[in-house]
Amino acid sequence: MDLLRGTVRSYLSRHPSATWTDFARALGVAGLTVPEEYGGAGCGPEEVASVAWELGRALSPQPFLQTAVLAVEALKRDGDRDARERLLPLLAEGSTTATVIFASPSYVPGPTPENHLDLANGSLSGEAPYVLEGDLVLVYVGGHLAAARPATREPYTTMDTTRPLSRLVFDRTPATILGGDAHMEEVRTLGIAALAAEQAGGAERCLETAVEYAKQRRQFGRPIGAFQAIKHMLADVAVLVESARSAALAAHESATNAAIAGAYCGAAYLRAAGENIQVHGGIGITWEHDAHRFFKRATSDAQLFRTPREHREQLARKLF
């Protein structure tokens, strides 16, 4: 895993603006978990977590989460043989991006906007208000996994420019049934696990940046890292980051672990990003510094799938 992480980190540092196709083909990450018979590497969630971790550290806009995790897992687990043979090779080679909409959530609705879609007579209608960008749109709806081209795609001008979102509208749009939805929750769980790894990676980078600055910035004749208040702040963040690491690595094992990671890693990232700004002081809120970009990514990530609060509520319903 260290070798994979190091390779991804090196590539991202040298090619921060690489296209998805270039990134995918150079490192093979698009087909990381695609079975070898469909042109992939046949790896597992541990490798996914390693790549996601580095993408989070680099604030990379690469569509790894929606394409290489959600779409690939949806097709692997619920797509029929024809769908797997047609689409998995395309995803594995990085020639197209994809996204997945969950229009049939089984959890109690909360603050997160819902996807209101209906599949009838082979046509899809309704809207999905916040969808990760992807050329191929897969939808879990009405007991099926389907593919459909939206009638309208409205990109948002988002606070977090590293995670583009769009509003998709379907108006009696022809839909191709690719399979059932028996493993929908498993796919969602793997998505939550990958996002948790991204969040943990971002939190780790925020801690590193804060520590580096605390060693360099001097006040009253000594580094600010020598002051007790800064020491305690960074020590608290270090505990959060290590705990987030553990939660993220175990997230793929079960829906319960994913909920724990979703709640903890999302909150840890927000805290680490916020404290990074505090340590940097005035420069931390300027456009020239990356600190605000990490905070914006942490804020937007905390709204994907479920908020930390919704994850905790799900855990409470399961455990109590």
Oligomer: single chain
Low-pLDDT parts are 105-111
Radius of gyration: 20 Å
Overall number of domains = 2
What is the residue-mean pLDDT, rounded to a whole number?
A: 94
Q: How much of the residues is beta strand, in percent? A: 15-25%
Name of the CATH architecture of the largest domain: Orthogonal Bundle
Please give the number of β-strands.
9
Total helical elements:
10
Taken from the alpha-carbon principal axes, the silhouette is globular
CATH homology superfamily of the largest domain: Acyl-CoA dehydrogenase/oxidase, N-terminal domain
The main sheet comes to: 7 strands, mixed
The CATH class label of the largest domain is Mainly Alpha
Structural class: alpha+beta
Q: Which descriptors would you attach to this protein?
A:
alpha+beta; 52% helix; 10 helices; 9 strands; seven-stranded mixed beta sheet; single chain; Butyryl-CoA Dehydrogenase, subunit A, domain 3; Butyryl-Coa Dehydrogenase, subunit A, domain 1; globular; 320 residues
Task: Give an account of the 3D structure.
It is a single chain. The chain has helices spanning 2-14, 20-27, 45-57, 64-78, 81-92, 184-216, 228-250, 255-280, 291-301, 308-319; strands spanning 98-102, 116-120, 123-132, 136-141, 144-148, 152-155, 165-180, 218-219, 222-223. The protein has 320 residues and is α+β, with helices and mostly antiparallel strands. Strands 1, 2, 3, 4, 5, 6 and 7 form a seven-stranded mixed beta sheet that branches. Helix 4 (64-78) packs antiparallel against helix 5 (81-92), helix 6 runs antiparallel to helix 7 and helix 7 (228-250) runs antiparallel to helix 8. It is globular. Mean pLDDT is 94; it is low at 105-111. It has two domains: 2-182, Acyl-CoA dehydrogenase/oxidase, N-terminal domain (Butyryl-Coa Dehydrogenase, subunit A, domain 1, Orthogonal Bundle); 185-319, Up-down Bundle (Butyryl-CoA Dehydrogenase, subunit A, domain 3). The protein has ten helices and nine strands. Residues 16-94 form the Acyl-CoA dehydrogenase/oxidase N-terminal domain. One of its GO terms (molecular function) is oxidoreductase activity. Keywords: FAD, Flavoprotein, Oxidoreductase.
